[in-house]
Design a protein that fits this description.
The protein is α/β, with parallel strands linked by helices and about 500 residues long. It has a domain of about 100 residues: ANL, C-terminal domain (GMP Synthetase, Chain A, domain 3, 2-Layer Sandwich), CATH 3.30.300. The chain contains 15 helices and 26 strands. The strands form six sheets. Strands 12, 13, 14, 15, 16, 17, 18, 19, 20 and 21 form a ten-stranded mixed beta sheet that branches. Strands 4-3-5-6-7 form a five-stranded parallel beta sheet, with helices on both faces. Strands 2-1-11-10 form a four-stranded mixed beta sheet, sandwiched between helices. Helix 10 links the parallel strand 12 and strand 13. The protein starts with a helix and ends in a 10-residue tail after the last helix. This is AMP-dependent synthetase and ligase.
Amino acid sequence: MFDLGRSFLAAVERRPQATAISDGPQSFTYEAWFNIIQRTAHGLQSLGLNKGDRLVAAMQNRWQMATLHWACQFAGIVMTPLNWRCSADDLQWSLDDADARALIHDEAVRDAVATMDAPILPCVSVGDKPFDSAYDFEELCAQAPTETILRAGPEDGSLMLYTSGTTSRPKGVPRRHRAERAAAVAHVAQNLYAHGECTLGVMPLYHTMGVRSLLAMALLDGHFVCIPRFDVEATLDAIERERISNLYLVPTLYHMLIEHPAFTPKRVASVRKIGFAGAPMSDGLMRRVEAAFQPELFVNHYGSSEIYTFTIDQTASRKPGSSGRSALNQRIRVVPLNAETPTDEIPTGEEGQIIADLASDEAFEGYWRRPDADAKSIRDGWYFTGDTGFFDTDGDLFVTGRVDDLIITGGENISPAEIENALSLHPAVEEVAVVGLPDEQWGKLVTAFIKTRHPVSEEELDAHCIASGLARFKRPRRYQFIDQIPKSPVGKILRRVLIADHSEPQPAEQS
């Protein structure tokens, strides 16, 4: 099979004058961008990076970041992107953990880099340099190679993503060219992308969703429109200016777009296909997104950094909450929450832990130097996701949350997602997050944190939950009205923050 370098080269040969990437007023055709990518690959080799070495890049979604990703694919270097919001401590830890051979950063990370001692490894800067010994990005790309650099094969390392850590340091997820290409091909197929698509490159390139959008566009001679960091006005301007045809975002970004005063359906009229991943989309938000975009295709994608795709539903609003069925390259099971082996499946409708077949073309093969994490997550050729869910009688998967997020109250297991979906349909609720807070009587008190559109009483919300069909024992015993619900940089609700900030035990009300 092709490696990723050959995949990009095929696009250059098919449509050399097609627009490949744009970043504000700057844009490149496939032919012009290939020339820059080759110069960058040559520059990386001149810095001393060899096939299999890891390059750490901490940068916003600018054209230079996308260029580095592709340069690594041609040179056989393992692209290792980091969150550009990282601290100096995070950055130093990642450089050490990855055994990085070079660091490339932009101005968003300059202060963190400057806080570290000047690294022994080469440092390349986009924008102001943190120390005199750093190279400019222009210097890196100054010379063209004497022949085309095309040094990777399908079995070589392509990428190492770091999963976001919650209670410990993040884990490295190494991925080969063949797995990355298989994931990109499946992404094209499952989102019904056509030649010449134009996508919004706003999901960060240190996240699997951002990488998938980048690779997918090159497979079909498409146009990747960089948005260095998410801003509603800049995003709407880019959609209008570049005639974006598809969006692939986390639910939070859809929420921010459609709730902004500058949003109008006319401004996003070019968008025909939309997809979401990274977190569940509540029933209420799904209805508002579909009404705002009126898409031809609305895809719910459920996956992870380790195995890109688990399940797909191409008609997401058909059955809100459903994640659909096993994707092109996957098999899925639901096993008991405490299962030790993948063979102990549970009946339809019963909630358990979701596991995925590691024989998938898209799968990783284990974490970077973390045998403890491998032992926890990999068993008998299956990946134990840590997610909870169940199959309904139609065979569709419903993802209900994380094993660690389950609320055990009064001896009952309660999933936050079910309560969040019910509350999201109340017209006064803009956003909601449900957690279990410590409680002497119940063990955990079901607590709903609400960001409202307009004032609403706890009594009204409680009546809404009962009227929606939510079992009485599942409804929140406490409501907390807050200005913002804490989220990660890629839009996942940070339940641990809510729990840490509001964990004073409180007496529960009687039913």
